[in-house]
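User: quick one - fold this with adenosine-5-diphosphoribose bound?
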Amino acid sequence: MQVLSHVTDELTDLIRSATRVAVLSGAGISAESGVPTFREAQTGLWEQFSAEDLATSDAFHFAPALVWTWYRWRQSLILQVEPNPGHTALARWQQGLRAAGGDLSIATQNVDDLHERAGAHVLAHLHGSIFDHRCAECGEPAELPVPGYDGFAAPPEPEDPPTCTACGALVRPGVVWFGEMLPMEAFDAASAAVRSADVVVVAGTSGIVQPAASLPLLALERGTPLIEINPVESDISDAMDYCLRGPSGTMLPALADAAL
Ligand code: APR
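Assistant: Sure. Structure tokens for the protein plus adenosine-5-diphosphoribose:
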């Protein structure tokens, strides 16, 4: 494993020869847009709760207003921020490879829409989308207006979730919570993309949360080179061939420049 502070000539050669690139992104790639990662301290009222405490069906069962409002507040925050140079570099790289007959696929653990707003196509949202809602009992999708909270202001007072128009049960966020199955179609698509890639880039994930953290390891079966982008060592750094130690807003544009 090479730990690097910049894109070296060797890495440039590797990236330039790759026509099929699989990118696995996590919360770190949205951090420079102003979306807090999951394992950073929460603010205000939310200081007492970790993401793990809020992102479970048990939490929703026992404190639906608290969990519901946390997600609506997070939606507001995401709507108030913009994609950063990491997102736009991936979109540029994807468009460049596609124009040349190759492909760059993105599978993300992020429930935000910043890859899409940067102009990229996302193959798989492994943990769903924060902008989807569905009935907690019958699964009926629910369309809701954009929330009116200020995502940068003090957390709002918890408000009850709406009820399902079909069965009257509570509507829940359409994200994947701890202990829940990932959408199989998304996981299978991401697995296939990693297995058929010439190079795999893992950007902004702690590598803690399974099964998403196991995806990069599929590259080991074929000896596909793995590149990590993270300012610090992660739980999966040991499996990497190259660790670019820096923010994705700097390292992804450098990789895209090397590739195109
Ligand atoms: N550039 C790249 N990486 C960064 C940056 C940055 N600017 N800033 C922080 N990071 C790294 C952190 O060092 C950390 O390793 O991003 C990672 C974020 O880790 P997590 O918060 O654990 O996010 P993620 O790995 O996406 O979490 C997985 O956990 O709570 C669940 O469902 C939620 O999808 C989420 C999942």
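One thing worth noting: Residues 36-80+128-175 form a domain with the SIR2/SIRT2 'Small Domain' fold (CATH 3.30.1600.10).
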